[in-house]
Each structure stands twice: as C-alpha cells, then as structure tokens.
C-alpha cells in the first residue's frame, strides 16, 4: 500500500481523520475530527488543503455553539498528557449544558437549507459528482471526499487549473 496521499480538487485528501458523524464520548458529533485535526496541526501534519478550514468551518461552528475559542481547544490538545487528561480539560472548558441534540442536528443538516443546497451542488460539480443524489449534507461531502462513502475517485475530478 502506498504512503502517498490522494489528491482532490482542493489538494491532499486525508484518509485517517474521523468522520464528522463520529461522536465524542460527551456526545458531540465532529469533536473527534476537530481533535484529530488539532493533533495533526500540532505535529505539522495538517495539509494546506485542510488548513483553510481548520478552526473555521465545522470546527468554528462547533466552538461557536459551545461559546469557546477554537485556539483554547488547540492549546488543550497541545498541553494534555493523554486522552483522559485532554477530555478532563475539555470538560472544564465546555459549558455545563452542551446542547448535544442541537449541535448534532446542525451537523447532519448543514447544507440542507436553500442556500446550503446551492453551495452543496457547486461543490459536487467541482468534484465531478453532480449526479450523486445520496450526498445531502456537508458532512456527507467530507465522507465521500475522504473515502468513507464509495464511488468517488478524486483523480477524475475536473481540474480547476
């Protein structure tokens, strides 16, 4: 198996990040993905293609939901000795009521508003998958891009050159 990372229309595609649909032990979707991106960032392994939305996009929306600064999460990941230490520090940072049901609904529905559907269709066109009616949200886009939903070959995406 090759160590070479696949390239998509926006650059390197990581295949080892958790899906945005994977919950953290506290119940929040996307949090394991954000934490994994923090670790990659701190180790110098977060590709440029992911840096554009790091601490923004879903990461930023999650932090906005929790009313915390994404840089505080990065610092907790940096300063933690292990996962238990990290989760303990996160519990101290997070509000008492995580409103898990509100956030999780937002994650699974992001891209389903009229404006969101328009943007989703643009991204699908950029990826050469306009015909995919099973891709309904931005979390789905992440999963198909990173290979968790089959049927997308990034090498066949239209070039943006």
Give a structural overview:
This is DUF5069 domain-containing protein. It comes from Puniceicoccus vermicola. It holds the Pfam family DUF5069. The protein is built from eight helices and two strands, in the order E-E-H-H-H-H-H-H-H-H. The chain has about 160 residues and is mainly α. The two termini are about 30 Å apart. It has a domain at about 5-110. The longest helix has 14 residues, at about 115-125. Strands 1-2 form a two-stranded antiparallel ribbon. A hairpin with a 2-residue loop joins strand 1 (about 5-10) and strand 2.
- Rg over alpha carbons: 16 Å
What gap, in angstroms, lies between the N and C termini?
A: 29 Å
Largest sheet, strands/sense/barrel: 2 strands, antiparallel
- In N-to-C order, the SSE pattern is EEHHHHHHHH
What is the number of helical segments per DSSP (H or I, 4+ residues)?
Answer: 8
Name the overall outline: globular
Strand order of the largest sheet: 1-2
> Approximately how much beta-strand content do the residues carry?
under 5%
Mean pLDDT: 92
Uncertain stretches of 5 or more adjacent residues:
none
Structure at a glance:
By secondary structure, this protein is mainly α. The chain is 49% helix and 2% strand. The relative contact order is 0.16.
Itemize the secondary structure elements and their pairings.
Elements: E1 7-8, E2 11-12, H1 31-42, H2 48-51, H3 57-66, H4 70-79, H5 83-93, H6 100-109, H7 114-127, H8 138-145
Antiparallel strand pairs: 1-2
Helix pairs in contact: 1-4, 4-5
